[in-house]
Amino acid sequence: MRPPLLLTLWTVRVACVLYVLALAAWLTRKGQCARLLWTFSFACYLGHVASAFAFQYHWSHHTAYEETARHTAELFKVRWGGGLYFNYLFTALWALDVIWIWWNTGNYRKRPRWINVVIHSFLAFMFFNATVVFASGAVRWLGLTAVLVLGGLWYRTHPIDKVQIH
Length: 166
Hints:
Layout: H1 3-27, H2 31-56, H3 61-76, H4 83-103, H5 105-110, H6 113-133, H7 137-157
Helix pairs in contact: 1-2, 1-7, 2-4, 4-6, 6-7
């Protein structure tokens, strides 16, 4: 395997591990640790994006779009590259979240719950797609395990019997 491809793969793998650890830290009330893991995870993810665009797509949006369409067609028999725009949104949303947590931590902690739900639901959806739907082999199983462990940890820290339904 060529070094540029290894760089692209390992930056995203490290980003995913740190992402899971950051969420676990938040769920177990380790805020400062979570903030650092969240930031380092995002930095690794940006390394992945830069590596992919530099070495696989040659800084071409069109090439990235076509490759996304090809990969989607392999899995779903529909040639559609629009998923690339979800990746752009993912990057922008995560960037804004990291900036917010460092720029005004107090405000970040007090933000409305719906903002957290929207942000983390979308990021989790993208994580699930990247590590389970579009991945294969060991990465798929590790991604599924991470989702189940985080779901269990969330349930343990937010038991359904304590959720108030209005």
